[in-house]
Amino acid sequence: MIPHLPTDIVRTAVKRAVAEDLTGAGDVTSLAVIPAGAKARFEIRSRDNGIVCGLQPTMETFIQAGPDLSLDVLANDGDPVEPGEVVLSVDGPVREIMLAERTALNFLGRMSGIATLTRQYVDVIVGTKAKIVHTRKTTPGLRAFEIQAVRAGGGAPHRYNLSDAILIKDNHIAAAGSPSDAVRSAKEYAGHMMRVSCEIDRLEDLSSVITAGADVVLLDNFSLENLRAAVVQAAGKVILEASGGVNLETVRDIAETGVDIISVGALTHSATNFDFGLDAA
Questions:
Q1: Exactly one of 47, 136, 137, 195 is catalytic; which is it?
Q2: Residues 149-167: pLDDT tens digits?
Q3: Domains, the chain, ordered by start
Q4: Catalytic residue chosen out of the listed positions 41, 47, 136, 169
Q5: N or C, where is the chain less crowded by C-beta within 10 Å?
Q6: Catalytic annotation on 220?
Q7: Residue 102 to residues 3, 28, 108, 171, 268: CA-CA distances in angstroms?
Q8: Is 101 an annotated catalytic residue?
Q9: 85, 101, 199, 215: which is the annotated catalytic residue?
Q10: At what angle do helices 7-21 and 94-124 cross, to 10 degrees?
């Protein structure tokens, strides 16, 4: 089971999302059309095949919408779902349910879409030693949720933020002078608990950054031939991460070169929203 996100992060994000819908006079459609005392039971059903994720913020949305709603969660984050499968039911005042509907489905659809895409990548590389990881190409303000979805899909964690690890990229190298100079400076700065990763775009730089003390080397847009050569040259001395040009058609070949990590920005920046619907039971 995927560990829950911290409650304060979920509450704050949901409160902000609900507030986007409640400026001005509130839900004027429900106020105009739905009788004040109307109650009913609704179900959130999957309309596709995939991996569900986002039940925690979905529940929180209904909780914030009204104290009189009763929830029954019928799935766990990371579970496979099929069309027609009910993942959550909600009973109570219809006005409160309608207030929460779109925000709840937005969280659930976004996170399930990421989890589903991640599972597709993970399934393609089964049998290799490589791990699929996310990047920081996330929706501003929603990183914790999107990374949670990657984990639900079977992906592995990367950096959550700029403080997690030192990751030297091309602009850092331009300022430092060379990849090896950047790594040496980073090793002097970092404590023994912090890893140093360096991005290179030429096979010729691999030996120097290993010698300088890099813990991880990010191989940016390497050809398959150069990825294989890098694996041989590194000989297990560093963790090798492949990045760039990764999609569902290329990821198996990349994994079979022997790299340890494959980072895929598309997991969070290009995932298709998963289709769920809220229907009267």
A1: 137
A2: 999 999 999 999 999 999 9
A3: 7-122+272-280 (3.90.1170.20), 126-269 (3.20.20.70)
A4: 169
A5: N
A6: yes
A7: 25, 15, 10, 41, 20
A8: no
A9: 199
A10: 120
